[in-house]
Structures are given as structure tokens and as C-alpha cells.
Amino acid sequence: MELSFIIEKFILITVIFLVSLGIAAYSTLAERKIAGYLQDRVGPNRAGPGGMFQPLADGLKMFMKEEIIPADANRFLFIAGPSLALLTACIGSAVIPWGQDMVIGDRIIPLQVTDINVGILYIFGVVSLGVYGLMIGGWASNNKFSLMGAIRAASQNISYEIPMGLSIIALLLVTNTLSLKEISEMQHGGNWNILYQPLGFLIFMVCSFAETNRTPFDLPECETELVGGYHTEYSGFKMGAFMFAEYLNMFVASAVMSTLYFGGYNYPGMDYVNGLVGPIIGPLIGMAVLFAKVFAFIFFFMWVRWTVPRFRYDQLMNLGWKVLIPLAIANIVITGIWITIYDKL
Amino acid sequence: MESLSNRKKVLDQKPMNFWERLYLPAIFQGMAITFKHMFKKKETIFYPEVEREFSENWRGLHSLKRDEQGRERCTACGLCALSCPAEAITMIAAERQKGEENLYREEKYAAVYEINMLRCIFCGLCEEACPKEAIYLDGPIVKSDYLRKDFIYGKDKLVEEPLKS
What is the spatial distance between Cα A231 and Cα A235, in angstroms, rounded to a whole number? Predict the structure, then answer.
């Protein structure tokens, strides 16, 4: 554990943290722009050229708002809720491999904060912790709409975590490892997991829509029924923290989907390009490719949000328990049979 | 029962078939439609820079007219204030002095003429009531502002520009 190691990790963490915050901030602008374009409008375009500074203006507005804590709310938990939501959203990106190892001189710098051998389980843990933020916030508000939203968030996350986990088991049968770094390396050369696990990917994607509380599964904050859902009583920066956490979760979910199923930082012709530009620029190009995939997924999230209407609550539960879980189990069985036969041949 | 109008239509709700129950084809169809709209011409009118064209009989901000010689037409009879259903118009009349004939057409004129734009409903009854053709609602949209007092428009904002030369 020498000093250079600490410095290198510190720089990497700072960069990833800032980049993910920046992406989350600009996701809010992208969401409004995409919503506008999908509806034959143009979206915000006043703050700066083409609305570039809109996130800054929104952030400033959030900070300037009055801090309101309802009289009967539990003050400590009321503040702890959004803080926890934001914290868990931020730490999810720690295990994602952003690129191949960078070689500077004789030092090998991995573009990943930490390569723990249970990477996927870590992400699962963090994502399911995230719902505590919503639950605590909704409960502490002392408001029936908030409580309803919190209950929905909790039951929705429990229901959709099961098919998500089951779809990952099928993926693990293929990859034989939980480490995201090894999974990324395995997909080198166009060998993407989506080709082996199309059904698993579909289940995983539907579940990540539910886990990040995005439309069509945004029942915890369903305006038409619950005023604002779990953040009914929130205003100002605490409300902003919840919103920010949602966009950060979306970013992490996109990164996880790209890494698990769409080859991570791999792209066709990677070895050729790496030989051309050397071991410093090469990994950075891989990183750019991964970010391009992430942005494509974020766009997909928004595209779906502005197309598909919200599910009814019983439909949501039907889909989770009666469709996705049996499908995921069937997927595991099929994958297992296929691997056994493939090994025998 | 027998339908009298012959327009009765019995809807039959068939149970959904397998593809419909999958939802996914319908979702992709919808997403294709929304994606097409990304490249359609946008309906937005960039308001302060571009203004929508108004119809001929659009009623906007009031203006107090002048006659051909540039004199104010208003004679402060108060009919507009009387006809106003929103009580938006007030005025104080004054007598024309010697030497002011080039300013006011009639022997009496409005020394103060105020319209409260927050009260005004832009019905155009003042326009109809005016016997001197002195007030018309032919202006633009009334601008937004921060304070209520700034919405009380006096003669400085209402009277037409004096004639050139």
C-alpha cells in the first residue's frame, strides 16, 4: 500500500465521482430536452446556449428554496432519508470497470476503483440499500401519501429484486464469475453476453426500470394517485437530493447493464486500435465507448418514460411475480441444460 | 332493445392473444412512433423573439387615439369607465385652457386616465361605448411585471405617439 497507489485511487475516485455527478445533473436537462423533442417541443433553451446551464440554474433554485420540515415529522429521519438515498446512489459505481488497465511506464493502473470478487452482489446490496432512503423519507414525513409511496417503493423493490437476481444467476452460469472485471474481459472480441442471454437481459432491464423507480414503474412517486409519493413533504435541497439520487441510480443501472450484457468497454476492432494508439490512449477510448453505451441506455430510459404509461399497481405485481419470476427460472433451467449439452459435445 | 337511431354499435372485447399479452410488440410500436416525432418540425414559437400572428379582431392593450392633427380625442365623458364590467378604468377630467387647442380636440379632456390591467378582462366594451372613437384595444399582449402597482397603466403608456412633424 504505497503512496502512489493511494494517489492513483484518489484521483480515479474523484474523477468518477465528479463525472457521475455531472452526468446525473445533465441527465435532468437531457430528460427535459428529450421529453420536448418526443412531444414536438424544444425543451428548455434559455439558460446559456441551447439551455446548457439549465442544470446549474435548477441546482441554484433548489439551494435557494426555503427548508421546510413538517411539524410532526421525525426531524432526524426526515433528513436521513434523502441523505441515504444520495449516498447509496453514489457508491454504486465503485466496482464498475471503466476501461482496460492503463500502462504508464512500468506501472499498471486499473481503471476500476476496486475489483472485489463479489462485484455483482455488491451492486445488488447497494441498490437494495437505496430503497431505505425512500422508505425512511416517506415514513418520517408523517403523511399518508408519503407513507403509501414508501410502502410501494419497498414492495416494488422486493418484488423486482427476485427476478433480477434470478436473471443474474443465469448470467453467472455462463460467465462463472461474480467479478465485473472478469466479466468485462470475457466479452472481449464481440463475445457479448447479450448473445447468450437475450431473455436474461430483457428481465434484467425490466427489473432495473423498476429498481430505479422509472416510468412505467414509477408508482412510488405517482403524481396522479399520491400527490408526490414519498417526496410529497420534501422541498428545496432535500427534494433535489431525491431527484439526484434517481438520476444517479439510472446512470449506475445503465453502466451495470452495459458491463454485464453489452461488452462493457469492449468494442469491435479493439485490439487493432489499441496497437495503433498505445496503452495510455487505448483504455481511454474503451472508456469513451463504455460511456457511449451508458448514454444510449440513459436515452433508452428516457425514451421509454415519455412513451409508455404507468402500470397499475396490481399489474405491476402481476408482472413481477407471475411473469418475470417464472420466466427468470425458466431462463436458468434452459441456460443450465444448454451449458450441460454444450460441455458434453 | 331495438336501436331507433341505427347508430348503436356493439363493441366486442376479445380476450388478448399471446402477442398482445406480451405487451412488448405494442410497446415497441409506441416507441417507434415517439422516435419519429423527434425529427418532426417543432411547434414551439419562441415568444419574445417571435410573435404569433393575431387575428383581425384580437383585443390587446388599449391605446388612446389622436385625431388627424395629433390632438387627443378623449373628452373624459366617462362612458368607458361606466361600461367597464370589471371597473378597471378611472379618470379625472380637466377643462381645456386657452392655447391648448393643439393638444386636445374637445373642450374637456382627461388629465389622468388609468386602466388597471389586472382588472381588465379585455372585453372591448369601452371601445364600443366611446362616442369619440378615442379608445381601441389594438395593442400587443400586456407585459408581465412584478408589482401590482405597475399594472395600473396611465396616460404615459396608453396615449398614442404624437404625429411626426
Answer: 8
